[in-house]
Automatic annotation (TrEMBL):
Coiled-coil annotated residue ranges, if any: none
GO molecular function: glutathione transferase activity; maleylacetoacetate isomerase activity
A family per Pfam: GST_C_2
InterPro entries: Glutathione-S-Trfase_C-like, Glutathione-S-Trfase_C_sf, Glutathione_S-Trfase, Glutathione_S-Trfase_N, GST_Zeta, Thioredoxin-like_sf
Name under which the protein is recorded: Maleylacetoacetate isomerase
Family, per entry: Belongs to the GST superfamily. Zeta family.
């Protein structure tokens, strides 16, 4: 691996988008330096963070520090994942080879079901807006659960009963985005028996060290009451 650059991640423990980055970094052997942004205390709206790093006032943000003193700032989780894959393609590849372009399409379809159809509407920022419009927490929860249900059913329809993971027997970018999304759905106390293959893949992935490292229960800023006592 190129080791001249250093990688600084601005993160929040329960963010599924941040968890994606941590999982991918562990799979590829990329060392991250962490800066924790407390979303509960509205740290993402701090002028220094929002004005200098991420005008979307969201996490994650990856700052790549170069040896010449310059830096590159990447402000969206999928862009960060694509950057990792393009820069370090031979370290635990997360996409099939370029020659297998049809397989790459299949993996990317799965990725975008989660990144676009599931994560976007279930994001806490959107869920809170639903609640503010409807003035009803049950509507908020119902909206989020329906988005998970629709997306997971689509994902289930595209994965094989015989494959170990989402696409074949090697971890792919689809798996990296799937696990944090399922963790979020379980926080909403969803019964996922309606997607048995997705659930089987999820449990297989949760046994891998990279996915344990990316678990929201195991982050440096995880509140004590949410930490994994077994770690």
């Amino acid at each position: 691996m190129e080791n001249q650059d250093t990688f600084e991640l601005y993160s929040f423990w329960s963010s599924s988008c941040c968890q994606r980055i941590i999982i991918a970094a562990h799979l590829k052997g990329i060392t991250l330096k962490y800066n924790y942004v407390d979303l509960r205390a509205r740290g993402h709206h701090d002028a220094k963070y929002k004005d200098e790093l991420n005008p979307s006032a969201s996490v994650p943000t990856l700052v790549v520090h170069h040896p010449d003193g310059t830096k590159t700032i990447i402000r969206q989780s999928m862009t960060i994942l694509e950057y990792f894959e393009e820069r370090f393609p031979n370290q635990s590849p997360l996409l099939p080879p370029v020659s297998a372009w049809q397989d790459r399409i299949k993996v990317r379809d799965l990725v975008n079901i989660i990144a676009i159809d599931v994560q976007a509407p279930t994001n806490s920022r959107i869920a809170k807006r639903v609640r503010s419009v409807r003035d009803n927490v049950e509507d908020q929860v119902g909206f989020v659960r329906q988005a998970f249900t629709d997306g997971f059913q689509a994902y289930e329809a595209l994965i094989s009963e015989s494959s170990k993971f989402s696409f074949g027997d090697e971890v792919s970018l689809a798996d990296v985005v799937l696990v944090p999304a399922v963790d979020q759905a379980l926080m909403y106390k969803m019964d996922l028996d309606f997607v048995p293959n997705l659930l089987r893949v999820y449990h297989s992935l949760k046994e891998l060290e990279a996915f344990k490292a990316g678990d929201g229960k195991n982050q440096g800023d995880t509140p004590e009451q949410f930490r994994d006592a077994s770690q």
